[in-house]
Amino acid sequence: MQLLLWCVLYYSLGYISLFLDDPVSQVSFVWFPAGLAVSAFLLTSRRNWPWLFLGLFLVRTLLDVTLRHSLETSLVHSAISLTNDFAIAWCVRHFTRPHDTLYSLVVWLVATVLTSAVAAALGGGWVVLRHGVDFVSTLWIWWSANVVGTILLTTIVMGLFWRQESEISHKWLIGGTLWLLLCLSAIYVFHQPIGGPRGEAFLFSLACIPVIVMIVIPVVSGNQMGAMAFMSFCIIVIYYSWQRNGPLFIPGLRPGEPLLLAQCYLSGTALLLNFVYLLKHNQRSSPVSSYYLEPQSGRLTWDQSSSNMLNQHLATINNADQLFSFMSPDDQQKMRERWAIVQSGSALNESFRFLLALSPTNTLCLQETKLIALQQSDGVVLIGYWVGEFQGQGSGLIIKGT
Questions:
Q1: Please, which residues bridge with residue 192 across strands?
Q2: Would you call 248 exposed, middle or buried from its count of C-beta atoms within 10 A (0-12, 13-18, 19+)?
Q3: Per-residue confidence at 26, pLDDT binned at 50, 70, 90?
Q4: What is the pLDDT of residue 231?
Q5: Is the pLDDT confidence value at 398 over 50?
Q6: Does the predicted model carry a pTM greater than 0.90?
Q7: What angle, rounded to 10 degrees, do the helices at 208-221 and 257-283 form?
Q8: Residue 31 gets which letter from DSSP?
Q9: Distance between CA atoms of 386 and 364, rounded to whole angstroms?
Q10: Which long-range contacts (CB under 8 A, 24 or more apart) does 76-80 make?
Q11: pLDDT at position 79, please?
Q12: Would you give the distance in Å from CA 288 to the centre of its chain?
């Protein structure tokens, strides 16, 4: 069902994107499915990536064949486009650092810019070869379409899936009021015709108002409300810009350039929104706990200097056998191996992610970030550090970066 949902959304967004195209090269000015595909890979486990890739590849090919290109061109475009989306998600997963959301954000942006440039060169080269259009123009349109689509849709989708600590009704009420203000202000600003009596400078200054309101919404009402508001904002800006209205249609610009300005406007807002997500995320410090293990007896003692919720969950676990009863066999084996390695005097540099199923309705997602051995008079003892992140009522803990 999840794969089917991604495919349906991909086809729908692709259908919309193909109407926002350059009439000469027939390359879309903005390719929304790129961001959806990147988000789908990031939100899907690695073992299901081949099926997701195959499903989106078939949908992309069907979309191109049905509405635009020959089968040969459609297959080439699908391979280039989906490989590009997969590469971005792989870079984020592979190069991300535990507990460093800013670094993950930078990796995502750099990967998006660089891999999209490679994809644009390959796709533009094929279009030039088959249709004889201008290579530089096609390269620029393809690259900007993929970058903007990735930034916009990944911001929206990941914002919707970024759960909050709790849902408070008055926050949603305030967010709904701000969302209405955002829509009204954006419609007013971008509904203005070209060369209106107020002048371009006045409209440019008004265009800052929706951005300010947009940034306030996730601060007040959370990331999910912010993502829904940003989706509405994008729809309004792109619709009116495509109708040749609003402050971005400056007299003298060539065809396609006003829509490019709209893309820059929305991309800048999306990046501001991502940094708001980041700041809000970092303000909530991840619960950390540490344990003291006596390997000979298996006795576990937890650090009680902090009263966070993680310590409250772990306080009842008093020995290693009890701890292992809450872990899967694979996680048990890996934990035993880590303890044995440290006891032998070797160092552990990598972290270890695992689950603790305390009850059928309460599973903790944890990460052991550090494990050391101390030599005591009665033998070696182990000290380990665990970290996790709460993501909503009843949803337990989830590791940063997953």
A1: none
A2: buried
A3: low
A4: 92
A5: no
A6: no
A7: 30
A8: -
A9: 11
A10: 76/123, 76/126, 77/123, 77/126, 80/119, 80/122, 80/123, 80/126
A11: 92
A12: 24
